[in-house]
Design brief:
Blueprint lengths: L1 H16 L8 H17 L2 H24 L4 H14 L9 H8 L1 H27 L1
Helix pairs in contact: 1-2, 1-4, 2-3, 3-4
Length: about 130
């Protein structure tokens, strides 16, 4: 039953984004959504969730570009609604803020770089401690 609900939600998202201004990412996003729908129909929950996550990342990127370009609220609403419909596929309600936060490409890049820098500093500190 869960896969059927996900498939119906994906069909709603595809229909919602049919006339949306997605720019050059349109084909990629629609391919991700259709692939996720097929995976959900075939019972491949992990694959469907992964594809939904990739679609959310791409939609967040499109949303950011549209906001930076000063697009009207009517243009942004279908993208935001699609993201809201897709989020429950790979996160629970408690983690939805984290998922939106990490789905943003610059945030994920900065978080990854910060983790690497912290680990490098810790390794350097341990090396200095052991070399004395």
């Amino acid at each position: 039953m869960r896969n059927r609900q996900r498939e119906q939600r994906l069909i709603r998202v595809i229909t919602l984004l049919d006339g949306a201004a997605l720019g050059h990412d349109r084909e990629r996003i629609m391919n991700l959504l259709h692939s996720a729908r097929r995976a959900s129909r075939d019972g491949c929950t992990t694959v469907a969730s992964s594809l939904c996550f990739e679609a959310v990342k791409a939609l967040s990127s499109v949303s950011g570009r549209l906001q930076a370009a000063g697009a009207a609220a009517e243009t942004l609403e279908p993208v935001a609604s699609a993201i809201d419909l897709l989020l429950p596929d790979f996160v629970t309600e408690e983690r939805s803020f984290y998922a939106r936060f990490i789905a943003e490409r610059p945030v994920a890049s900065l978080a990854g770089m910060s983790i690497l820098l912290v680990m490098a500093a810790l390794l350097y500190g341990v090396w200095r401690l052991l070399s004395t």
